[in-house]
Design brief:
The strands form 2 sheets. This protein has an 8-stranded mixed sheet, with helices on both faces. It is α/β, with parallel strands linked by helices. Helix 12 links the parallel strand 8 and strand 9. The chain contains 13 helices and 10 strands. Among the domains are: 84 residues, SRP54, nucleotide-binding domain (Four Helix Bundle (Hemerythrin (Met), subunit A), Up-down Bundle), CATH 1.20.120.140; 189 residues, Rossmann fold, CATH 3.40.50. It is elongated and about 115 Å long. It binds guanosine-5'-triphosphate.
Length: 461
């Protein structure tokens, strides 16, 4: 072979190698997904649409403005003008802080009739408001001197979306970062799984979401940060079952032989999760919607709980029926519904006590409350209140309550205080019951309707 031929061969091989190298680099770059595009901070397509108000459901054909007998409750509209103060506003007893912090013996040990087992009215553990905890942590709202203005419910979640910032940064943004970081190897998928598990989505939903992402990232040919966001949004919204009915059954029953009957809503859950606060916030929403409300303080284990509820009521002109401390919760609930029917209010909201951690005790008490209430009127909604910050504990509670009463909706409180917003996914799956409302703060109007799309958008944008 001549020298010229050899030189030509070397040149051709060098050119081929250079072409192969350039092609490889270009292909590798095209497979990368970058999240640094200017589009990054724009809302996902369709935008954040949390404009919905809390919706209420009527149990039967709509009632045409029922005429109500004289009732000391003035209505407030969506933009309420100052209304006259309701008659029954009694001074709220202030509970002084308990200073002593000592362990408390469980009272059941001293009781002979229950054979050492907790009975109705007992806690499995020492109640949180025993001397061990102290009332100092319970923030009683100030007694209002006049009826307050209530923030309109429409657009409320949009206004409160900033309160989901902890979940947004540790859950939403982490996922976007991981998915958009380029070639996804097995380590990346493990990181994605860990992020979902740490946000309290639970193993089953994590598997479901990861499988959907793996499949669709290829099927859709995901390339850009917008593609990633859109895919993640669709997969998360889908896992939240947007088709579930989330209206609260709180509107009165149509005229019957004996006239219109109020809707009855039972608010249940263990102590400290935010039942009383939620009942108060819900009363405000109903009043803002032009409804008349009567409150039943069936949490008779703690006088301050009834005071707290009464204060919430007085702030919006709703009366509260309460019993003596330690009274039978069922009798208070019965009386509240009886008075609600007599007064012709639209809704009776009953705050129950959740002190019974033993299933039998809980069943006895809640079952009795429901039975006696049903002698007066149908129970339309049983709202189970869960504290989003309690993770697995909250789920255990949810299971017990679901076995005991027919839970029709979940209120997830304290979502503002947690980075684990994923509990929403898990609790719906566990119970098969929709999350209807979410608590996003201690403020009087920090209760919002739960909307899957708006929620996911708040996490991702
Ligand atoms: N950050 C935050 N705090 C909340 C929320 N909902 C309730 N809380 C607070 O949680 C605490 C307990 O609320 P309560 O309404 O007294 O709870 P409860 O379940 O009625 O408790 P018991 O009356 O003891 O059974 C209060 O300090 C509330 O202000 C919420 O959505 N976010």
């Amino acid at each position: 072979m001549s020298t010229t031929s050899l030189i030509w061969i070397i040149v051709v091989v060098a050119v081929l190698l250079a072409v192969a190298l350039v092609t490889g680099v270009v292909l590798a770059r095209r497979r990368r997904i970058s999240l640094t595009e200017p589009e990054q901070d724009k809302p996902a397509k369709g935008g954040y649409r949390a404009g919905g108000a809390i919706t209420f459901n009527e149990p039967a054909p709509p009632v045409a403005e029922p005429t109500r007998p004289a009732e000391p409750v003035e209505r407030s509209g969506a933009s309420p003008a100052p209304v006259e103060r309701a008659e029954r506003v009694e001074p709220v007893e202030r509970v002084e802080p308990v200073e002593r912090v000592e362990p408390v013996e469980h009272p059941v040990a001293e009781r002979t009739e229950v054979d050492g087992q907790p009975g109705v009215g007992d806690d499995a553990a020492v109640p949180r408001d025993s001397a061990k905890r102290g009332f100092v942590e319970v923030d009683l709202p100030e007694q209002a001197s006049e009826i307050e203005e209530i923030e309109p419910t429409s657009g409320r979640l949009e206004r409160l979306r900033g309160r989901l910032s902890r979940s947004r940064s540790t859950f939403g943004q982490s996922l976007l970062g991981l998915l958009g970081a380029g070639d996804l190897d097995e380590d990346s998928w493990t990181d994605i799984e860990d992020t979902l598990l740490m946000a309290d989505l639970g193993a089953a939903i994590t598997d479901q979401i990861v499988a959907a992402l793996r499949e669709q990232i290829v099927a859709r040919g995901v390339r850009t940060s917008d593609d990633v966001r859109a895919l993640l949004r669709d997969v998360l919204v889908d896992a939240l079952h947007p088709e579930m009915r989330r209206a609260v059954n709180a509107l009165p029953h149509a005229d019957g032989a004996s006239g219109p009957k109020p809707a009855v809503v039972l608010v249940v859950g263990v102590n400290g999760v935010g039942k009383t606060t939620t009942t108060g916030k819900l009363a405000r929403v109903l009043v803002a919607d032009g409804r008349t409300v009567l409150l039943g303080a069936a949490d008779t284990f703690r006088a301050a709980a009834a005071d707290q509820l009464e204060t919430w009521g007085s702030r919006v002109g709703a009366s509260t029926v309460r019993g003596a401390e330690g009274a039978d919760p069922a009798s208070v609930a019965f009386e509240a519904v009886k008075q609600g029917v007599a007064a012709g209010v639209d809704t009776v909201l009953i705050d129950t006590a959740g002190r019974l951690h033993t299933k039998t005790g809980l069943m006895d008490e809640l079952g009795k409350v429901k039975r006696v209430v049903e002698k007066q009127a149908e129970v339309d909604e049983v709202l189970l209140v869960l504290d989003a910050t309690t993770g697995q504990n909250g789920l255990t509670q949810a299971r017990v309550f679901a076995e005991v009463v027919d839970v029709t909706g979940i209120v997830l409180t304290k979502l503002d205080g947690t980075a684990k917003g994923g509990i929403v996914f898990q609790v719906q799956r566990e119970l098969g019951v929709p999350v209807k409302l979410v608590g996003l703060g201690e403020g009087a109007d920090h209760l919002a309707p739960f909307e899957p799309t708006a929620f996911v958008d708040a996490l991702l944008t």
